[in-house]
Amino acid sequence: MEKYYVLDTSILLHSPHALFAFNEHTVVIPEVVLEELDRFKSEASDRGANSREVSRIIDSYRSQGNLLEGVPLNKQGGMLRIETNHLNTAMPAHWPLSRGDNRILQVCKGCQKKRHTILVSRDTNMRVKASILSLQAEDYRNDKVASIEEQYTGRANVYADSKTIDAFHQDDTNVIDPSLILAFEQNTHSLQPAELEINQFLLIQSTDNDRHTALGRFDGEKVVHLRYQSHTPFGVTPRNIGQVFMQECLLMSAKEAPLVIIKGPAGTAKTFYSLAAGLHRTLDSKTHEYHHLLICRPNIPMDEDIGFLPGSEKEKIDPYMRAVRDNLFTLISGHKALDDKEVAEGEDTVQMLFDRRTIQAEALAYQRGRSLQKYWMILDEMQNSTPRQAKGVITRPGVGTKIILLGDPEQIDHPFLDSRSNGLSYASEKMRGSTLCFQVTLQHDECERSPLAAEAALRL
Fold first, then answer.
1. Among the ranges 83-87, 332-336, 363-367, 452-456, which has the highest mean pLDDT value?
2. How many beta carbons lie within 10 A of that of residue 43, not counting itself?
3. Where in the chain is CATH 3.40.50.1010?
4. What's the rounded Cα separation, in Å, for the pair 10 and 145?
5. pLDDT at residue 17 is higher than 60
6. Which residues have C-beta within 8 Å of that of residue 325, sequence separation ≥ 6?
């Protein structure tokens, strides 16, 4: 049955190409949505870019006919309409129609009289108000991935017999045939042949001795040894299995592992370890694999809260990079007690790394259009990015650049994102199975910041 899908402003600001996601159905854009999009078009932000893109797309369809009557949108029979009618459709008296949301709901209610109508909005309150009017409302699901419990972790606990594990331990060149690897099946409560993903990290336990284990990685054909398990990048030693897996994919070359995605709760050393490995490869490495270490965060309000205040890009970004500076100070000075002179020296060293541009901090929005050569690129707090932003930065690397995406899908500050629609989760699920992508999800019991941080991450 053909339907009307009414899109609100939040959908188009999030994903301009949402217009094409409804196949044979009619996409309705209330005229108030165009007015709201117009307010954002001058912003030098991702939201502004999306607003301009939507306007260009809609304008390109003007030549095909009257947008008020509807024009063909795709080969499936879908239509695009701009709706200016239904001004007299009854609404609750205390809902002022001067508000854009209420006008959109009025359009939905008017359209409902002609054909089954569905409001598509990322605004939770908007969907609640739609239900008050007995209108069907949905979130935009086209870029949503699996629930957080079902998302890919990049690691698995599997089983093999002791003979297989013993043979694997005898020599670093020995491998395990994946047909010998078993996994626990929840439905049958039994061990069944494991279904492994390429580049998946494995904790292999003996079927007859829980303390007899091995660590490995499935390379698509066989289970191989970890190469960097005993390394200490910039003096840092892994403290748990998750950090061992994280260290492995971070220390691989950009040719082998150009994209690394690390998820996990606060305190699991995601940023700390990524900085340590980056400094090791940038400063310690004899081959000087990378020219610069670049750090970006998506939640820097360059164009909203402080974007128009006086100051350079660096001065605006600095307050959001304090966590990075804290980690760098710890890496350089260690955890030992320091006197005032040593503290000052450590802070001077951190500042020197920024002054020499060995380490660079930039806004995520400014990476569009770049082609980065031999960069160690850390994208922190990516759970606050949109899928479009994640795609934009993952497509930036040139030859020799390594991109590391970090974040916790359970701690999202963006008002229109959740654990299924943020850029980090989206990239993780879409890049699953790629030979060029390595992933690790740190667990709550692998928090190393402090006992309190581990407890808080689990309980709060």
1. 83-87
2. 18
3. 4-138
4. 19
5. yes
6. 350
Looking at residue 137, its amino acid is: A
Q: State the fold for domain 240-459.
A: Rossmann fold (3.40.50)
Give ranges for CATH 3.40.50.300 in the chain: 240-459
Question: What confidence tens digit (pLDDT) does each residue in 375-425 have?
Answer: 999 999 999 998 888 988 898 888 899 999 999 999 988 877 889 989 999
- 78 residue type, one letter: G
Block residue for tokens 């002022």: 96
Q: In what order do the strands lie in the sheet with 79-83?
A: 71-72, 79-83, 26-30, 4-7, 117-120, 136-138
Q: Which residues have CB under 8 Å from 373's CB, separation 6+?
A: 291, 398, 399, 400, 401
**315-323: long-range contacts, CB 8 A cutoff, minimum separation 24:** 317/361, 317/362, 317/363, 318/361, 321/295, 321/297, 321/361, 323/271, 323/380
What local confidence, expressed as pLDDT, does residue 299 receive? 60
Among residues 230, 217, 332, the alpha carbon closest in space to that of 272 is found at 332
Relative to beta strand 182-185, strand 190-193 is antiparallel
Tell me the backbone φ, ψ of residue 286, rounded to 5 degrees. Answer: -70, -25
3-class SS of residue 6 = strand
| pLDDT tens by residue, 64-110 | 999 999 999 988 889 999 999 999 999 999 999 999 999 999 999 99
Strands 437-441 and 117-120: unpaired
Interatomic CA distance for residues 329 and 388, integer angstroms: 33
CATH 2.30.130 domain extents, the chain = 146-225
Is CATH 3.40.50 correct for 146-225? no
Q: Under 8 Å CB-to-CB from 279, ≥6 apart: which residues?
A: 233, 234, 293, 331
Q: Which CATH architecture has domain 4-138?
A: 3-Layer(aba) Sandwich (3.40)
Q: Are 61 and 71 in contact (CB under 8 A)?
A: yes
User: Residue 43 — very low, low, confident or very high, per pLDDT cuts 50/70/90?
Assistant: confident
Helix, strand, or coil (residue 207): coil
Contact predicate 331/283, CB 8 Å: no
